[in-house]
Design goal:
Distance between the termini: 52 Å
Number of strands: 7
Strand order of the largest sheet: 3-2-1-4-5-7-6
Radius of gyration: 18 Å
Number of helices: 11
Strand content: 15-25%
Structural class: alpha/beta
Largest sheet: 7 strands, mixed
Helix content: 25-40%
Length: 281
């Protein structure tokens, strides 16, 4: 029997499996030699589930590379602290070319942090990496964590990759307000999708995600965050990125050439993007 996701933390294994598949390509957009080990059988099983056109994980490959590039720009501009919320099994501190003096903090549930510490105990990160076990659903704990970890930072970057979709709108609003209060915050990098994407996922993956249901898909896209005072600096469609880099199946590439870039404030149909925001003034 094909394993299903047992909790949200298991989705990190699913994502790692797609990173491993991209790494195996001769024309890989990034290399993650740790991904296959971290994915394990659950990650591989989930990556093999669903329609064939999704099994390369082109949507995850696009998301990963877009955030890689956004981080590179932010670090080149002087970012001195990266805070990755719900970091899961991300390996950027090990695989990206970053300054050795850069402070990088990963936050996730204590069980995930403990597992990752064991799995990567023999690996050496390329910067000053710290992992913190914290329940980000606990608002007081989240606020205290963000305030304490960023104290003294001049230019803080926050990442929430693959997190928001598992939250409801009220929780996303609360999280956005707490991130805005982070000391020294310069940019927030996140991914989001339209309601049509959640419909496709439910259709293609059946009950595999019953224990990690996806919820957040604002019909107004980035405007959801702009109403909270955030300013969109860059918004990149994952589909069109995958199209440019020939990661889509042939029939999707042909169809994609006929499609215009969607309005990120009025996305129609299936749409997902990586967005970088500046905090409210």
């Amino acid at each position: 029997m094909t394993p299903s996701i047992q909790n949200v933390s298991d989705t990190a294994r699913w994502v790692a499996a797609y990173r491993a598949r991209e790494t195996e390509r001769p024309d890989a957009l990034f290399r993650d030699p740790l991904a296959a080990r971290l994915a394990g059988p659950v990650g591989e099983a989930m990556a093999n589930r669903g329609p064939r056109q999704m099994r390369s994980g082109w949507f995850i490959v696009a998301r990963t590379k877009l955030i890689d590039d956004a981080l590179a720009r932010a670090i080149a501009a002087g970012a001195d602290l990266v805070v990755n919320l719900a970091a899961g099994l991300d390996t950027r501190p090990y695989r990206l070319e970053v300054p050795s003096a850069l402070q990088w903090v990963e936050a996730d549930l204590p069980a995930m942090v403990a597992e990752k510490n064991v799995a990567l105990a023999a690996e050496i990160p390329r910067c000053r990496l710290t992992r913190v076990g914290v329940d980000l659903a606990d608002r007081d704990a989240r606020r205290n964590f963000l305030r304490e970890i960023a104290a003294g930072a001049r230019r803080t970057i926050v990442i929430t990759e693959g997190l928001l979709v598992y939250l409801d709108g009220d929780t996303v609003t609360s999280l956005a307000n707490d991130i805005a209060a982070t000391p020294g915050l310069r940019e927030w990098m996140l991914d989001l999708c339209s309601p049509a994407v959640l419909t496709l996922i439910a259709r293609n993956y059946g009950g595999a995600l019953d224990r990690a249901p996806m919820k957040f898909a604002p019909p107004d896209g980035v405007a959801f965050f702009e109403r909270l005072g955030w300013r969109a600096l860059q918004v990149d469609s994952q589909f069109h990125f995958a199209l440019r880099h020939r990661r889509l199946p042939l029939w999707m590439r042909i169809a994609g050439r006929l499609m215009r870039q969607p309005d990120p404030r009025k996305p129609r149909g299936p749409w997902s993007a990586v967005a970088t925001f500046a905090p409210p003034a």
